Amino acid sequence: MSATLGTFLKLLNPELSIKIFERLDAPAQESSNPWNNAGTGHAALCELNYMPDTSDGSLPNAQKAIAINEQFQLSRQFWAHLVEVGILKNPSSFITSTPHMTFVRGEKDCDYLKRRYLALKNQPLFAGMEFSQDPEVIRQWAPLLIEGRDQNETIAATTIQTGTDVNFGEITRQLIDHLVSQGAEVDYNSEVRGLKKSKDGWLVSTGSVVTKARFVFVGAGGWALKLLQKAGIPEAKGYGTFPVGGQWLRCDDPEIVARHSAKVYSQASVGAPPMSVPHLDARMVDGQPSLLFGPYATSNPKFLKHGSILDLPKSIRPSNVIPYLAVAVSNFPLIKYLVGELAKGKKRKFESLLEFMPTANAKDWQLLNAGQRAQIIKKDKAKGGILQFGTEIITSADGSIAALLGASPGASTAVNAMLEVLERSFPEQFPIWKSKLSKIMPWYGKSLNSDAKAAAKSLAETAKTLQLK
Length: 469
Hints:
The protein is of the alpha+beta class. 33% of the residues lie in helices and 23% in strands. The chain has helices at residues 2-12, 63-84, 107-120, 135-141, 143-146, 168-181, 224-231, 254-257, 311-314, 321-330, 332-342, 346-356, 414-425, 430-440, 452-465, and strands at residues 19-21, 95-97, 100-105, 130-132, 155-160, 164-166, 185-187, 194-198, 201-206, 209-213, 216-218, 240-251, 263-265, 279-285, 288-298, 366-369, 373-380, 384-388, 391-395, 401-406. Strands 3, 4, 5, 12, 13, 14, 15, 16, 17 and 18 form a 10-stranded mixed β-sheet that branches. A 3-stranded antiparallel β-sheet has the order 8-9-10. Strands 11-20-19 form a 3-stranded mixed β-sheet, with helices on both faces. Helix 1 packs parallel to helix 6 (168-181). The chain starts with a helix and ends with a helix. Keywords: FAD, Flavoprotein, Oxidoreductase, Tricarboxylic acid cycle. Its cofactor is FAD. It comes from Candidatus Rhodoluna planktonica. One of its GO terms (molecular function) is (S)-2-hydroxyglutarate dehydrogenase activity.
């Protein structure tokens, strides 16, 4: 998020002075690191949580799925522009064509998936989506899903070829390298410990060093809440964070990896948070293909993978005690789910993989820790507090400080999120910037999905620049 915002600002006003503080010794070592996330270019092509089922058997509402896809198209357009002007190098280093599939089992889920397909197949941004309940057709899409499976099992799948695998860590590193080449400063091993309002901006403290800034963006993942609390802005009061960790099973065996080239998502377990939807993913990191399966949710009080076990208790304030308690009381299924996940060893976690890939062998897979996700807890008049599975931008009244809280869909829609930051925090400049932004992203501010020709053109043009199929 920070690298994306910095890049926008330098493109829009090259004279701006930018300084980046990173508490670790390199960029993209937390949620953006390719092994800490699924690398899915989240466009709602295969993720069921963006399009929940209906209670009456009607077609599910596609509006949220379309909105997520529209946001990802902005990211594709932005990245394509950055490739054209030489800011991002070698598209294959950070994005590859990877079909997106959804795979479900049982009559109920198969019926839902078919209705989801019917609701999406004629939407321009979902053009080319296919549905099948024929095991032999699904075998052609992803053979490892079918081999060894009971032929009498009721299954269904959708597939679409416009999906992508994205190395967000590589994008981050390249963007930061460019910012440095344009005069931006990066202080590594530098933890922000204080944010104090001054007459003309903020005093940013990293121990003994204090930096003055007219504008501050807090792109600190799970630590964003902690820094907002230090800033003391009223807009952050009442917010809390519910941390959820994760683990993956990873396979690097060339013979196995070569036989699966898609990202395959399924239904979440009852009570599971959205980031724990099981999926079997083809990954491409630093030119090397791998498979990931998971994630398996874990629970600890850290707000970051490299955080502290005191992060959660230290975030409690009088203003967010009630939201924390309300969420604890009203989310018993989630707590029960997390406790159950914690009790699983590698053997039981491997059993979940067998539901996707019946011929999997435990010796071919290693268990790795994924990134930490910090879900939003916020005030709610009716319930006292709610747990929000999404992202949210918080901006001070004067626009001088902004932050991003939450996780899903995260980095995939960083471009859309940072455009919102620009609009909120630079209200005087933004109307002037919009014309330049429209040149960078030709369909910015327009609905691609409402224009089939425009959608096809945008997908084709960005695919060509980003070297996608």
